[in-house]
Amino acid sequence: MLHPVFKSANRKIKALTHWSLLVSVVLFFSTPSYSAEPLPPKQVRFLGLEVAKLTQKQVRQQLWQIGGFKFSRSSLQQHNIDKFFTQTRLEDSYSVTFYYNDLGEVTRFRRLYRPYSARRDNNGQLLNTQRVASELSKELGPALIQRKGWGGFHPYLSYSWQDDEVAIRIDRVGEHPLGDVFIEYRIKKHDPYAVKDEQNPNTLPSYIRNAT
Fold this sequence. Notes:
Helix content: 25-40%
Number of strands: 10
Oligomer: single chain
Strand order of the largest sheet: 3-4-5-6-10-9-8-7
Largest sheet: 8 strands, antiparallel
Distance between the termini: 108 Å
Number of helices: 4
């Protein structure tokens, strides 16, 4: 028969072993699993469209056909911006804003997240950049991480991926620790200042065409 001291020590060892296994399980499931072959940013798709080749026509047609978005009236008079509010698509987000050049090419677009997820699996916690990056890392692999913060606020992490055609960034609005989280895609090969042939009068409004 074991001495009481040895019995107590045996129980502590079993408890520590059980706790170690539990911690190992928690760490295993909380670490993002990367795909065997990370996807290059230029091959990423968004709402069924290939990001690297996006055009204004493709965006408007696709979002109209799949439904679930409401076109913002504030962008009706701006031919270089389309803003769509989410309704039944991307319910964890406020909006998606696309920026075009004069050729109708998408130069960048931004998905702005809500502070709280529409799903009930985050226990009411505020959304942070880490959670968004964790999901994207499963597809794109490890990200370049930058620590940001100012004004005495607790710092946060910004994540980015890029190749020769597309740059992807997860950050906060205004680079402020309390700003809403967003993910932005920038198509490098689409020059934001590219314009159509000046000989085509339809590219200019009347007050410019008639100027002397």
